[in-house]
Amino acid sequence: MNPRAFSTLGCPGAGLDEVVRLARTGSCFGVELRCFEGQLIGPESDPAEADRIAGALRRAALAVPVLASYVQVAADGPDVVEQLARHIALAARLGAGQVRVFGGGAGLPKGRWERAVRHLAAAAPLAATAGVGIALETHDEFLTGAEVAEVLEAVGSPAVGAVWDAVNPWRAGESPERTADLLGPWLRHVQLKDVASPTDLRPVPPGRGVLPLGDVLGQLRRLGYDGWISLEWERAWYPEAAPLAEALPAFHRVLDAA
């Protein structure tokens, strides 16, 4: 059975006690920490605060599979590698396995792929030394497994892998089988969710929308993927969505039935 987690994107503003309580309502043994200003942890959090959070989660027997950063590796700026280094150091203090990154670079298509490869390749040795992976998510300008795999193949480092956001490649027309084939060698983390339609991305409890979750989970079994599966309930972006506590049981039912 894959270990299960949830993202704090689903409980914006929640304190540590609330996060622990949510985990204990089901069989979640990990918390994907959204790294954002005003949340439990942010890019500028000091080491003492990171140590405090890490200690509290450790005492609650909760792992941190992913520190979900908002670094855009295809951005055109002088500080992208510095941002990555800062998040890698923070993840190491938290005991996080991966730093999630986005591709980005929406307004600068020329050289986007090259920038992503260059920045990830420069940060890969830092990640390897810290014992923390960097995982590029199927998101934004790198929506599909094909786009992410092309970058990762060029970087060619075991310290750099992929996050499979189950919705994004599918809504771009890539089948779960194709995504699995492309990301298989690089897969480090899976984010599960469900939606009403490919063009209506409001959160729907897993199993009640149109995403072929059974196919996604079947492909993960085929790959022999034994890593984390995390519920990404996007209540931070859709505040009208039900509370995370109401979505977690549906998440567990989908995984239990797989």
Automatic annotation (TrEMBL):
Gene3D superfamilies: Divalent-metal-dependent TIM barrel enzymes (3.20.20.150). It comes from the Bacteria. Keywords: Isomerase. InterPro entries: IolE/XylAMocC-like, Xyl_isomerase-like_sf, Xyl_isomerase-like_TIM-brl. The keyword Isomerase applies. One of its GO terms (molecular function) is isomerase activity. Residues 30-248 form the Xylose isomerase-like TIM barrel domain. Pfam families: AP_endonuc_2. PANTHER family: BLR5974 PROTEIN, HYDROXYPYRUVATE ISOMERASE. This is Sugar phosphate isomerase/epimerase.
